[in-house]
């Protein structure tokens, strides 16, 4: 789905969301009343220092002046790969955006990621993966790293990697694989008006505790993460 | 007859290079002697369930040591990545150990956490699990900080602090870094592969150090303390940073927003670290890279940006 169609389907009562060179900012009217803040990245734009700080400013301003949920729509490249971005401290800019989203989520502004296109690596961490609930739309193509690049690092052919990917969801790109690890909470139905699915989600929104490891265990995509984290947490508590 | 004191079996912290040391040596020498207790140590053999798919060797601790010890007599939780195993990269088990430690710290609410970063980022053989582990760790760092826990990062290892490791580092309350402690998202080779040598020549080591290395990060205010490459120097820095104010909230985020906006405004058109250092008022920017640690610290205290309370 294209961003315009998605926004129209999410907010039939109207929205003022603008896409300026891939940076998405605005808000939409919710059917149940009130408005949702909308931020995001479109058109497979890489996320660099300039766009990250704009998005963070918008979220921060909304924390003090607004209310209602925050929707993060994502069709990005990975982080912008350049000398300038790294020179200026891209890690801080990306983390700052993630921190603003997490802070908002923990203070009455539930965050919902809507992954409708691509995303990867640092851009994924700073946006969609920094939300309380991440929803995927059919056709979304998240990838921590694409198979040709992975082939270069692992010294295995793409054919071998594709074969291995059939037995495990843990490394190969794709929405279904990420959903199995617990990163994606739900995949919406593109044939059903998105407003219905958004309102249903908002009415039964989970609390802000991070249960993605438990979800990954239930779905069979991450067999050990939940248990290991719980054991370490328990051992730490014995030290107090 | 004079008595010669017995030589210790291992080198003391004052002469042990952080860069050269293993995660276990760093942990042992950083903490008060004999105080470290490991959680899920190598004897438990909790290895990665994914590396065998690639016929790769496993490590019994999955490349990270986590546990509890004391620093200057006070209890701390600690995690140390082993940069010599899979480049210190985050896999499912590796990441879950750090997530669990941070959640424990959050629940306790008063015991600080030290993270000894040494990582190239996500472990590609388990990329989805590793990426998600980093997202969980970022959230767990923030939750711990919201509960009043100080989370201090120490960076000076072989693998630097790259990829998602750089994002986690930027979520910490404060950071100490040595010259060798490179912090970035995209590594030099990744930028070169994607954008060409004109954008970034990864074989130009001087360029790598001054763009991503500890000195530049300290001058920018991306790290709070610069230290010499010894375990003792990191220990002293950790003690000092733990003594500073912590906390997390809207006020800090607002200050960080202003701090990063100012950085873009002041240095956003600079083509190189040397231009940034000159713009800061350093008269011999080209000499910064060769300054010994003590002289650099004096310079950084005079000209470097401060990120205290704005991260």
Describe the structure.
Chain A has 11 helices and 9 strands. With 240 residues, chain A is an alpha/beta fold. Chain A has a domain at 3-138 and 188-209: 2-enoyl-CoA Hydratase, Chain A, domain 1 (Alpha-Beta Complex). In chain A, the strands form 2 sheets. In chain A, strands 1-2-3-4-5-7-9 form a 7-stranded mixed β-sheet, with helices on both faces. In chain A, strands 6-8 form a two-stranded parallel ribbon. In chain A, a hairpin with a 2-residue loop joins strand 1 (18-20) and strand 2 (23-29). Chain A is globular and about 50 Å long. The relative contact order of chain A is 0.11. The model of chain A has no long low-confidence stretch (mean pLDDT 95). With 311 residues, chain B is of the alpha/beta class. Chain B has a domain at 23-183 and 223-246: 2-enoyl-CoA Hydratase, Chain A, domain 1 (Alpha-Beta Complex). Chain B has 11 helices and 7 strands. Chain B has helices spanning 23-30, 92-108, 127-146, 164-169, 188-195, 205-212, 214-220, 231-242, 250-267, 273-279, 293-303; strands at residues 37-38, 64-71, 74-81, 113-117, 151-155, 174-178, 225-227. A 7-stranded mixed β-sheet of chain B has the order 1-2-3-4-5-6-7, with helices on both faces. In chain B, helix 2 (92-108) runs parallel beside helix 3 (127-146) and helix 6 packs parallel to helix 7 (214-220). At the A-B interface, helix 2, helix 3, helix 4, helix 5 and helix 6 of A face helix 2, helix 3, helix 4, helix 5 and helix 7 of B.
């Amino acid at each position: 789905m294209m961003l315009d169609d998605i926004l129209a389907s999410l907010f039939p009562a109207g929205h003022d969301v603008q896409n300026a060179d891939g940076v998405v900012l605005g808000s939409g009217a919710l059917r149940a009343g009130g408005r949702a803040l909308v931020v995001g990245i479109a058109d497979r734009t890489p996320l660099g220092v300039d766009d990250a700080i704009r998005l963070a400013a918008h979220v921060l301003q909304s924390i003090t002046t607004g209310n209602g949920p925050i929707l993060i729509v994502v069709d990005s490249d990975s982080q912008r790969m350049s000398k300038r971005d790294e020179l200026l401290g891209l890690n801080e800019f990306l983390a700052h955006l993630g921190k603003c989203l997490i802070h908002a989520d923990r203070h009455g502004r539930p965050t919902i990621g809507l992954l409708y296109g691509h995303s990867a690596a640092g851009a994924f961490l700073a946006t969609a993966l920094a939300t309380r609930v991440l929803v995927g739309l059919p056709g979304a193509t998240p990838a921590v790293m694409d198979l040709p690049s992975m082939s270069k690092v692992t010294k295995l052919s793409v054919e071998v990697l594709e074969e291995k990917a059939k037995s495990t969801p843990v490394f190969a790109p794709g929405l279904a694989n990420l959903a199995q690890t617990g990163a994606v909470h739900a995949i919406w139905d593109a044939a059903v008006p998105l407003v219905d699915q958004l309102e249903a989600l908002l009415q039964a929104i989970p609390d802000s505790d991070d249960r993605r490891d438990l979800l990954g265990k239930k779905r069979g995509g991450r067999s050990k993460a939940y248990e290991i984290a719980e054991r370490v947490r328990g051992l730490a508590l014995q030290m107090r | 007859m004079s008595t010669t004191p017995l030589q210790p079996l291992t080198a003391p912290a004052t002469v042990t290079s952080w860069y050269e040391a293993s995660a276990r040596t760093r942990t042992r020498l950083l903490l008060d002697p004999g105080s470290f207790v490991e959680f899920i140590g190598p004897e438990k053999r909790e290895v990665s369930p994914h590396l065998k798919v690639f016929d790769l060797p496993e490590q019994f601790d999955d490349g990270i040591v986590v546990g509890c010890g004391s620093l200057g007599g006070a209890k701390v939780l600690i995690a140390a990545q082993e940069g010599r195993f899979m480049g210190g990269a985050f896999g499912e088990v590796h990441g879950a150990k750090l997530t669990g430690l941070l959640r424990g710290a959050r629940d306790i609410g008063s015991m600080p956490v030290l993270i000894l970063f040494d990582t190239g980022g996500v472990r590609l053989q388990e990329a989805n699990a590793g990426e998600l582990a980093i997202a969980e760790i970022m959230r767990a760092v923030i939750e711990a900080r919201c509960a009043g826990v100080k989370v201090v990062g120490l960076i000076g290892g072989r693998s630097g602090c790259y990829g998602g490791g750089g994002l986690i580092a930027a979520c910490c309350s404060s950071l100490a870094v040595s010259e060798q402690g490179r912090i970035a998202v995209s590594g030099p080779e990744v930028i070169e592969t994607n954008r060409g040598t004109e954008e970034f020549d990864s074989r130009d080591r001087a360029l790598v150090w001054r763009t991503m290395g500890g000195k530049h990060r300290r001058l920018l205010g991306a790290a709070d303390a610069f230290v010499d490459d010894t375990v003792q120097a990191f220990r002293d820095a950790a003690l000092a940073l733990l003594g500073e104010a912590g906390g997390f909230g809207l006020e800090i985020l607002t200050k960080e927003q202003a701090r990063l906006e100012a950085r873009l405004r002041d240095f956003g058109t600079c083509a190189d670290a040397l231009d940034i250092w000159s713009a800061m008022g350093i008269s011999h920017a080209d000499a910064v890279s060769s300054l010994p640690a003590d002289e650099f610290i004096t310079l950084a205290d005079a000209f470097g940006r401060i990120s205290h309370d704005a991260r």
